[in-house]
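Record type: monomer structure entry
Structure origin: computed from sequence
Chain ID: A
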Amino acid sequence: MWVADNWKDYQVIDCSGGEKLEQWGAYTLIRPDPQIIWNTPKAHPGWKRPNAHYHRSSKGGGQWEFFDLPDQWTISYKDLTFQLKPFHFKHTGLFPEQAVNWDWCQEKIRNAGKPVRVLNLFAYTGGATLAAAQAGASVTHVDASRGMVGWARENAAASHLEKAPVRWLVDDCVKFAEREIRRQNHYDAIIMDPPSYGRGPKGEIWKIEDSLHPLIQLCTQLLSEEPVFFLINSYTTGLAPAVLAYLLGSEICPKWGGQVHAEEIGLFVKESGLTLPCGASGRWER
């Protein structure tokens, strides 16, 4: 498992009974997590006095219960700063486990020995975009949600990267890739974090089981003659790391060679010493 263990402003304190107790900077949150199917004593005092608690409904969805939490606050990862706020369906605008991928991308960019053009699809609030830009890459950031792209630009400003070479685009990722192929544009690295299900800005439907492989096939047409890496992350339940490895290996290795690795990604749990699994990532590199 690849573990994001370089955080100073974030940690999973404890987890039990379908919930995790987390420290986000100065604030403690309780949020649900479907992976946590065990029940152990909730002895840590943070369980009794969180700043906010997201309660999942038995009918689907849920709602926040606030005790003492600002509308917005920031945390930092190394030299990156992120704006956080309680968002619908338990989210805060950041997935801390992705830091393990940010570190890997930065290492590949810094060691490429050439300028690197990165395409980040389903780019959300810009964690990977900012990590890549900070490492010296020029980045095209694409997400179907105007609000998420705006949030990513706020994170860029907070991280003093507002003047970095980033194109911020609100677009359907598949249609954007198709247009880039027609334009004969190419990228040295591609990052994508596709949802299980989603809709584009004009109602385009995305289902990962039907749409991921065709998108990877499109994106191989966008790779430069000497690409640096290709990263896919997924939170889709039941999509094993090996599936991501097969997809990358079958579509990229025949032309460019290189190596493919895939693992679960996770976060260390302070109280138990366990590692909480948080999705899967597949990486291709030369």
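Annotation 1: The longest strand covers residues 275-285.
Annotation 2: Residues 2-84 form a domain with the Immunoglobulin-like fold (CATH 2.60.40.1180).
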